[in-house]
Design brief:
- This protein has 248 residues and is an alpha+beta fold.
- It folds into 2 domains: 134 residues, no CATH class; 97 residues, Lipocalin (Beta Barrel), CATH 2.40.128.
- Helix content is 43%, strand content 26%.
- Strands 1-2-3-4-5-6-7-8 form an 8-stranded antiparallel β-barrel.
- Strand 2 and strand 3 form a beta hairpin.
- Helix 2 runs antiparallel to helix 3.
Amino acid sequence: MVIVGSVIGLENSQAFGCVIGLEMLSIGNLIFLIISSILLYKAIKTNDPKIVIKLVAFETIIWIAKYLFYKGGYVTGFGGTANPINVIYDFVAIGIRIWVLILLLSKSKYSLIGAIISSLLLVILKINVFAFPWFTKTMWELEDKRTEKQKTEIVGNYSGTILQLSNNQVRQIELRIDTAKLTFINDQPFNFKKEYHFGLDYPNIGGIATDQGLEYDVSIEKMNKDSLIIYFEDMLEKKYKLKLKTER
């Protein structure tokens, strides 16, 4: 179940809103897959019942912690609701682990009922308290701090070239960037407007816009204290490359 769930993206789903990530390719997914696989494989191979219980219990604790604090899939779609497929998968995954643990510890005839109730309570807890994963929230907060820092660092006057990628035309440019605007100081190249609203939504990613709406997405390829390489993109296709020197 761990292996199949990882391959199809349910084991460590990071789905949020209408976005579905490539969970199988993420570092977090691979780490959790390796941990669970090693612990469960060792539990299957050992003949010592005490070690089996410890290994299964340890894997279960890690899985539940991951489930509550890391796993997504519970704030999806326009309504921000739990994805039913994720909920069913997780309910079964938790239930199996707890059922096995109870059988290993006591062989109680009520083990299945206990597992179902425990799994149900954990799913309810996830939906009502941990729907928005702590890990995701923390990473977003770190990205926000990096973005705010970059907004300050990018402020300055620049000179350099702008390359129109479709036909290799190059123009000399001078421009100014502050925390809210991008302004062409010299003649606007390739019929650009003189001034744009400018903002970074995430580190290295933003956009320039007029009062009428978005003109180009912006992606920063390289940025240091004396130079800047930045792309203007249209529908995810790079249109212009700006290679600039700072004058700060």
